[in-house]
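Q: Here's a chain of 437 amino acids. Please give me its 3D structure as tokens.
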Amino acid sequence: MNLHHLLAARMDAGNPVRVGLIGAGKFGSMFLSQVPTTPGMEIAVIADLSPDRARAACAHVGWEDTRIAATRFTDAGEDLIRDSNVEVVIEATGHPAAGLAHALLALKHGKHIIMVNVEADVLAGPLLAEKFRAAGLVYSMAYGDQPALTSELVDWARATGFTVTAAGKGTKYLPEYHDVTPDGVWKHYGLTADEAAAAGMNSQMFNSFLDGTKSAIEMAAIANACDLSAPDNGLIFPPCSTDDLQNILRPKSIGGVLDRDGMVEVVSSLNRDGSDVARDLRWGVFVILKAPNDYAAGCFKQYGLPTDETGQYAAMYKPFHLIGLELGISVLSAALRGEPTGQSRAFNADAVAIAKRDLSPGDMLDGEGGYTVWGRVMPAAKSLEMNALPIGLAGGIKVVKAVKKGAAISQSDVALNLTDSATILRHEMEAAARTAS
């Protein structure tokens, strides 16, 4: 609770926190909108495949012409990372391979990195974070996104002496969403294809939020950051209101839905019949905590914290996340405190590619949110045993063996490019995990 004062000291010293942003999409634009009202933090460089589009984004979020003119724009993330004016790098491309490449380059050049790119983090984040820690640099989740906000709740719960039973987020989910392709996504958002196109909305990206892939990726990130477990058979997305979190997200042995304590899960804002859950948590995050003793449980009741009928389980939640509007917290925490706002620390969970339809040799996989695969979270040990294909490597590669709809795809089912840097880094992490086990 001291970041603002630390930032003011940097500003008074004439040494603002200088940031480089890679990717000026929605997340990046939301962050840029906050910069003019955060004295002491400056954007030194913005990298985007279209610098003109990035300049337009700055103007759209309210930057004055003088601020835009004082900012350097480039079309290459590598150029940004090498710039000596950049202290903290924000990786917001959403492209797994690009994210890993940018992280390794930031490490080489001694720059802190904020990984908005959760796809890259789940692909090889535990290994990257270890490399950054060894170099005395910060590798961090992005505050404002749900994995970092959930990690904060988990940290709070553990630092106050509670057992964490479950942690996760809310979303809009029905089982049939796993089969949705970009062609059918917009009806689920209440839009026509023309309306979405006019708003510049990408159908494959939005479909990844709907078909369960983004939830799998984010829960794997939380499990890896918070030493939690992934469900053996994937997320179950129970319909749940904020009033019922502590009743539903507890072990099956006492009437909940979890296999055991210490798990990640996502709750749905829709009942299975498609009706809305009252007081849903669609945009929020939660942690379920367990009292360590009867005295603490008694205090729950005395101070008005809703619990389950045992009095032992309670929920804490945040009903929203503001993504890029909150990202400055990560930037300042890295630059001023040398601390991440959530960080992968163990390879506990993985997000793997599941066939959306029967796949035949010669078919091309098109990655998250596409026509061919969706992502399911599973324990990393199970993924390693199956040699499962991570969803982050499931784009632009050819199928070489038939795979049935609903089956997890093995790395041996596709023609992986073993010389690709992202694949090499992923295999390095897998080898280390197998050796450790």
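Q: Can you summarize the key feature?
A: The two ends are 39 Å apart (CA to CA).
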